[in-house]
Design a protein that fits this description.
This protein has an eleven-stranded mixed beta sheet. A nine-stranded parallel beta sheet has the order 5-8-11-14-19-22-25-28-31, with no helix packed on it. It contains three helices and 35 strands. By secondary structure, it is mainly beta. The mean pLDDT is 96. This is UDP-3-O-acylglucosamine N-acyltransferase. Its EC number is 2.3.1.191. One of its GO terms (molecular function) is UDP-3-O-[(3R)-3-hydroxyacyl]-glucosamine N-acyltransferase activity.
């Protein structure tokens, strides 16, 4: 879309050079032909170094937009970002793309569906009920068990195993709300990348990124009934037990271990080689490595054990 068309769409004042907007992105990752936005004061510091060609801002923030970058001034930048996100959402399927390619030695059930533009590697097994969307790539020697669903543009590595009922690439839980309590869907136009040698249990959901990629790094092991929200990063060789949940944009370091029913709040960073007992609730970022934690809110595991022992004595 032309920038002038976007300005009209969201009711923003627009002055300056018009250009074709290729897509939307974060302030940090945006290029000169992309649109970004600022909906939180903590991101104002990123405006000056952003390469975005235009930024959706409010009256209080427009003064920080540098020369050479167009400011689209609106009352509610987050709401208007949601409006624009729908315009850059791709088709659900690319019906005009070339037919899917299937590598040598791969076996695809007649009851599976492989969309146009998809690519399946060598020696894969694709079982009944599997759906592989447009522009999805699946590496060599990968197994997709029955009813696995992989939305468009996602990438699955080599030597992966994905068990029945798992969904990869669905939209994250993202929406803008206005003063009336109404909600506007934010279209998630990124993808999910599953690197090599990853095993994912049954009925797990991994959401696609709003912009960019949700990443499950090589060697990771995910149990059944896990939820990975949009834009998360799971570090190499991490292990997540059943019913663990990661809120949006949380990042786990290498070899993180989470017991069953653990949870991580959004936008947190966890240092490598940390272990969390079952039902741990991670509420802040962790910079130290090699620790063991437990409880909600989480604390040192030994301290948690002492507290539980004292509580037990109180009721005797």
């Amino acid at each position: 879309m032309k920038l002038s068309e976007i300005a009209t769409l969201i009711g923003a004042d627009f002055s300056g050079e018009d250009f074709e907007v290729k897509g939307m992105n974060t302030l940090i990752d945006a290029s000169s032909d992309e649109l970004s936005f600022v909906a939180n004061a903590k991101y104002i510091k990123d405006i000056s170094t952003s390469n975005a060609g235009a930024i959706i801002v409010d009256e209080k923030t427009k003064e920080f937009v540098p020369d050479g970058c167009s400011a689209l001034v609106v009352e509610s930048p987050y709401w208007q970002m949601a409006v624009v996100s729908a315009k850059f959402a791709p088709l659900l399927e690319e019906i005009d793309s070339p037919k899917a390619t299937i590598g040598e030695g791969s076996r695809v059930s007649l009851k599976a569906e492989i969309a146009n533009g998809a690519s399946i590697g060598k020696n894969c097994q694709i079982l009944a009920g599997v759906y592989v969307g447009s522009n999805v790539t699946v590496g060599d020697n990968t197994i997709l068990y029955p009813n696995v669903t992989i939305y468009r543009d996602c990438k699955i590595g080599n030597e992966c195993i994905i068990h029945a009922g798992t969904v990869i690439g669905s939209d994250g839980f993202g929406f803008a709300s206005n003063k009336l309590g109404e909600h506007k869907k934010i279209y998630h136009n990124g993808n999910v990348v599953i690197e090599d040698d990853v095993e994912i249990g049954s009925n797990t959901s991994i959401d696609r990124a709003v912009f960019g990629t949700t990443l499950i790094s090589r060697g990771s092991r995910l149990d059944n009934l896990i939820h990975i929200a949009h834009n998360c990063v799971v570090g190499e060789y991490s292990v997540l037990a059943g019913q663990t949940g990661l809120a949006g944009s949380s990042k786990l370091g290498r070899s993180s271990v989470f017991g069953a029913q653990s949870g991580v709040a959004g936008h947190l960073e966890i240092a490598p080689f940390n272990t969390f007992a079952a039902r741990s609730g991670v509420t802040k970022s962790i910079k130290e490595s090699g620790k063991v934690f437990a409880g909600f809110p989480f604390m040192d595991h030994k301290a948690w054990l002492k507290i539980q022992a004292k509580l037990a004595r109180l009721i005797k």
